[in-house]
Amino acid sequence: MLYLIISNVALLLFFSIYWFGTRKLTFFHWNRCYLICSLVVAYCIPLGLYLKLPTSELMHFKLPEIIVGLSPVSATSNAQSAEVTGNFSLPSWSTIYWIGVCLFAIWLIIRLIRLLQLIQQGNGKQSFSFFGKIVINNELRDDEYNQVYLHEEEHRKQGHSFDIMLIELFRVFNWFNPVYQLLIKELKFLHECIVDEKHAENKVSYAELLLAQAMDTQRTVLQHEFSNHSLLKNRIMMLFKEKTDYKFKATYLLALPASLLLLMLVVNCRQAEKETKTVETEVAKPKTEEIVLEDVPDNEPFQGELVEKAEILAEYPGGFNNFRSFVQENYTYPQAAIDAGVKGKVEASFIIGSDGKISNIKIIEDLKHGTGEALIAAIKKAEDWKPAIRNGQKVATKYTIPLRLDLTQM
After folding, report:
1. What is one cellular component GO term in this UniProt entry (predicted)?
2. pTM for this entry
């Protein structure tokens, strides 16, 4: 949701620069490039919200959470229950959004089908182009026919239909943004101005031909018509307008501060999201002191090189679920924790050496009352693992296992 908000606000900002700054300039090619590039940039920069830069911390593998109550429940059942619990209904805004996406996608498909049918059938009074297809009014005189054909052929050469279809695809997923209607109209206008500028040698006769053709055309969006009512007035005005001085190209530099503003917004949103998660974690997690057990050395020796990644992960006899089930069955709910009504998560990390033995069991998160010690005791009883493999060599890897204590699990 945040991505859609930022990207569409960015698009609105870039389009405002075009509308109030460069729209009336005669740099048609530059305006076309600006609109397409601003569309891409508006949706690329907010992707920084989801980019994760590599960190120097050692990677460890986290096993699925185990739930332990007064009565044992299988780890497989817990995992399935968690999956079922997670399948809640989508928020209303998300449902509405995807319904809108589906409707606009259907609308686009219907328009494409109608256009293809029109191309296949031909049209006696309308001249237009769509990608490599060109339809010319068969009632034109030879000289007019040639001029209209060259016009539509130029649309085809410059790939103007690709621009329109690109924006139409973006609009399917951003249907709620009204700026797309203006964006498509302006881009089609620029396409026509680009072609008019190149092929209007006699501006007066060319304008007369536009007026004559406009009487028999229908308003469409996907294809490029030789003459269109909604664009005709502005096209003729641009046809006779004096060329803009090159110094006004500096107006496009306004996009730079807009891009920097967008980058700052993304960075601030990412930082705010990170701080929010930190606060939520601090509130959710019980504040505990660091646990140091006398029988667990701080740096217990283990065999092999501890690596971040391995081609083949360490494997417990019978698989990960078997290890989770073993820990669950061998975990003894401390009486002190029962008396205190303790409820929450205990998490431990451990290292699987290149010899498959478990070592360096550390409590990362604890609920006190002996809950951490009980988890260490359960892990110690487990069998040796089949070690991880990297580059054909046995290596050591680090794992964490979360265990949730809940007295209501009967």
Report:
1. outer membrane-bounded periplasmic space
2. 0.53
